[in-house]
Amino acid sequence: MVMGQLLSAGRAYGTDGLDPGELLRSTNRLLVGLNTDLFATCCCARLDPETGLMRVATAGHPPPLIRGAAGDYADLRLDVGPPLGVDADYGYTDVGVPLEPGALLAFYTDGFLGGGTGRELDPDVIDTAVATSHGQLEEIGDQVVERTTGAPSTADDAALLLLRYEEPAATARRYMRRLEIPRRDLLGVERARHFLHGWLTAWSLGTVDDEAQLLLSEIVTNALVHADSDVDLRLRRYPGHLRVRSATANPHPAINVGTPGEDQAESGRGMMIVSALASAWGNSPSGRGKAVWFELPL
């Protein structure tokens, strides 16, 4: 009950535009005023997508680890304040961190490191995971979990959140396109191929057109045949690769790539072609459905 109140209050304060320090001060006063004798830890960050400036504050929570694209780590010099609910008058402050494209952010709880306070995630663990994971966040997360010293504490929450800052929003909007394909659209695959070809031509990416169209045909056909829903197709050009994503309202949970017993919808010839030709591919939850995506190097 109390945690729900804090989450609702935090969202409301964030919607009002409060910086992280102000948000923690307001939430702290709320918790103290509830007279529950409870406390909570929190790390709050706000990112300006237009500039890449992130402001972050923390209340009894480990600060995030921020790895630059070149492998350097940000020195936050962040004041880790007491948990919320301990001192009604504590003045939580935030610091600003400019993020460069490709920056990797790791937010984690004490429980992820086995419990206790004052421990920090080892940057070497992050570096090793990045070097051996082809840059995919899912793989990086799996390796960080495997390599982190100390089993997660059963007495505390164990959570790891990885984020990657790609580029300013204005740049992203220039290189992201979307197409809605109605379910059972007999011309859906043809329209998707025409859509992809047009934008690859506009972006001067003709060298990947043939492979991209083949893979696109497979994932869109798979979606239209098996999902029985509209298809949300998205193209995104990144500095070093192209990502194509097909999302549906298929209620079946996303499955791991290559796991035994996976259903024929994901394990047939089409997905084998995607696996063979794409530099990376996978599937993940998307709202009430799931998304299948692939990437090609540029």
From TrEMBL:
Instruction: Show the InterPro entries listed in the entry.
Output: Bact_Sigma-Reg, HATPase_C_sf, HATPase_dom, PPM-type-like_dom_sf, PPM-type_phosphatase-like_dom
| Protein name as catalogued | PPM-type phosphatase domain-containing protein
Recorded source organism is Actinacidiphila bryophytorum
Q: Which UniProt keywords apply?
A: Hydrolase
Top-level lineage group: Bacteria
Q: Check the record and name the Gene3D superfamilies matching this protein.
A: Histidine kinase-like ATPase, C-terminal domain (3.30.565.10), PPM-type phosphatase domain (3.60.40.10)
Q: Which GO terms describe its molecular function?
A: phosphatase activity
Where would I find the PPM-type phosphatase domain in this sequence?
A: 2-165
UniProt-listed SMART domains: PP2C_SIG (SM00331)
